[in-house]
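Can anyone check this?
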Amino acid sequence: MKETPPGSRHDHGGQDHDAKVLRLRGEASEFENFHPPPPRGRGIRAVPLRVILPNLVTLLALSMGLTAIRFAIEGQFETAVVAVIAAAILDGLDGRIARALRSTSRFGAELDSLADFVAFGVAPALILYFWGLHEIKSFGWFAALVFAIAAALRLARFNVMIDDPNRPSWQAHFFTGMPAPAGAIVGLLPLYLNLSIFAVPNVRALVPCEIAYVLVVAFLMASRIPHFSGKRIGRVPREYVIAVLFGIAACLLLLATFTMEMLISLTFVYLATIPFAIRRFNAYATADAAKQANAAAAGAPPIAQARK
């Protein structure tokens, strides 16, 4: 039998031995020298301006709320009220701008909720406390805390209800509970009465009534009482355009000239709409329930056939 020479190509054992010797000496094979190319880094994605603009308006509303707190600390309560009103106007604009530019996002919704909590929950509570509720320290601070907590609960529930796919379309005409901006404007009514031509005195004897009023507004925010929503107001009939423009211009001029008196009027008008909102909501709910009952009855088999 012919043996294979040690140096021939058929001597696999010798080759394995040589490879092991090479590894022991520190020499790497051609596969060990191979390194995969480094992964390419992702480029920075540009964010369009139409996405930034609504969030910028939200940040301005947040800044107005913080500015209102500053003026309340300094005792400039009328300027603090104007800052809250400016925050409410900006809050009404940011959502409409986002929908108009088709730049709505989850980030924007969360940022809007945080800004609303500061501008319409914390700021009005501190303004009321520094203005008059501090006369009865424990109960006044309790009312301020309840107001801010109610605003936080109202905003959290609003965020949850946005993601509800089973919500009927007609409920978009209503808010569940008083909106936080409306709660801030309505809750400052005692301050308006003091700074207006009525000059209701800011005395300790009236503080319990003011605390009770603040607690009622907090309850309206945290409750499930329906309120009218103006989000669906987007088009005005052509024959009413002149009248609407005149009415808006007149309201703005009156608000700039008689700020506190106009805020008192708007507060009472808004509170007067709550019973009508409840009645309209119940009518929609009754019609929806009847429609679902008719649909279920039409889809169910007759009783006689079901017995067979």
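Reply from J.R.: I decoded it. The longest strand covers residues 174-176.
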